[in-house]
Amino acid sequence: MPKDADPRPCSIADTLEIIGERWTLLAVRELLHGVRRFDGIARNTGASRDILTHRLRKLETAGILRRERYSDHPPRFEYHLTPAGRELGDVLLMLMKWGDRHLNPDDPPMRFHHSCGEILNPVVVCEHCGREARHGIHTPEGRGTRPSSTI
């Protein structure tokens, strides 16, 4: 980091410290799809065993997943998302939507149906008014804000 760097305090940066790596989010994707065992997660993500082991431990330390032993001889574990981990499903849905629109517009690799029967088209909305969040964002506040003259 440059010596004159003054990184903006930001929950995005804090979150990326934990989940901002390809294999980490792909492991969460597999857990969301119900894949619980290491070999299945490794197969479906393509991650090497050592990298996947490190990422799963990091997720466990961060409280995003928990391990449950399913075999004593040899010791084997299943992985389960915590409530915090399940919330990452919303993030992955939005990443998928962006990728479908901008990288795979003619042939999205996967679609989900919502319980209403229609193909799911996720949007982020304001909890208060119900409008799409990206159309109403303004007036940031908090310790991460800076006057525009310092940019």
Return the structural class.
Answer: mainly alpha
The percent of residues in helical segments reads: 40-55%
Query: What strand order characterises the main sheet?
Result: 1-2
Overall shape = globular
Unreliable spans are none
How many DSSP E strands?
2
Walk me through this protein's architecture.
With 151 residues, the protein is mainly alpha-helical. 40% of the residues lie in helices and 9% in strands. The protein contains 5 helices and 2 strands. The protein has helices spanning 11-19, 22-32, 38-45, 49-61, 83-102; strands at residues 65-71, 76-81. Helix 2 crosses helix 3 (38-45). The two termini are 17 Å apart.
Short description:
The protein has 5 helices and 2 strands, in the order ααααββα. It is mainly alpha-helical and 151 residues long.
What is the element layout, followed by pairings?
Elements: H1 11-19, H2 22-32, H3 38-45, H4 49-61, E1 65-71, E2 76-81, H5 83-102
Helix pairs in contact: 2-3, 2-5
Key terms:
151 residues; mainly alpha; 40% helix
